[in-house]
Amino acid sequence: MDRERAYVELKARLVTKNLIKHSLAVEAIMRKLAVYFQEDIELWGLAGLLHDIDYDKVSSEPEKHGIIGAEILDGLNVDHTVIYAVKSHNPQTGIVRRRRIDKALFCSDPLSGLITACALILPDKKLEGVTTEFVLKKFNENSFAKGANREQIMMCKEIGLSLEKFIDLGLEAMKEIHEKLEL
User: Fold this and answer.
1) What is the structure's pLDDT at 147?
2) Where residue 3 falls among pLDDT bands split at 50, 70, 90?
3) Which run of H or E residues covers position 181?
4) Helix-, strand-, coil-residue percentages of the chain, each rounded to 5
5) How many CB atoms lie within 10 A of CB 58?
């Protein structure tokens, strides 16, 4: 599946504008990580873009999130590497994250939320004013952006990145698409 069709399929299934923007942010982070690790950029990007394709459908049953997404993606003939990454990104499924793409998606998902929260507390609500140091400072404030699971973000070490480098790459990726994110 190409990126354009994937985006159409995502928008057909998600009604929340912020969830679509979140998917775009995770896609950007995953693409940036793929470049950094010399992995398949399109494959990693699709995993990021499509990881929450089932979210509106399973919002009341979080344990099914990723499982239903995998079924949707299988029906759309998406690459099995992407399907597995989507299935394993939700810790409630109990599916082991085996490959670097699986682990990257797992830690990129909450990072996008943390970076977005950092932008939203600035007076202009723009990513332009967000620095890696600022995100690191906010990362260490447990009362800030409570939904951004710090343990999950710290799993970046399993893909060979320090927290600082991971935040730096994620922030750079999101800044590159700031218009789409309206940040």
Assistant:
1) 93
2) very high
3) helix 178-181
4) 70, 0, 30
5) 17
pTM as predicted: 0.97
CA 58 to each of CA 53, 149, 161, 171: distance values in angstroms, whole numbers, following the listed order:
10, 20, 32, 29
Q: Which tokens is 7 given?
A: 């985006």
Euclidean distance between CA atoms 83 and 61, whole angstroms = 19
- Catalogue all structural domains in the chain, each as residue range(s) with its CATH number: 3-181 (1.10.3210)
Nearest residue to 69 (alpha-carbon basis) of 51, 89, 56, 94:
51
Question: CA-based Rg of the chain, rounded to a whole angstrom?
Answer: 15
Identify which of 128, 180, 173 has the alpha carbon closest to the alpha carbon of residue 35.
Answer: 173
Do residues 171 and 135 touch, judged by C-beta distance below 8 A?
Answer: yes
Sign of dihedral through CA atoms 109, 113, 116, 118? Answer: negative
Q: State the DSSP code for 172.
A: H
The CA-atom distances, in angstroms, between 160 and each of 69, 106, 152 are: 27, 14, 14
- Tens of pLDDT, residues 32-70: 999 999 999 999 999 999 999 999 999 899 999 999 999
CA pair distance 67, 37, nearest whole angstrom: 27
Angle between helices 100-120 and 80-88 (to 10 degrees): 60
Record the tokens describing residue 128, joined without a space. 């332009």
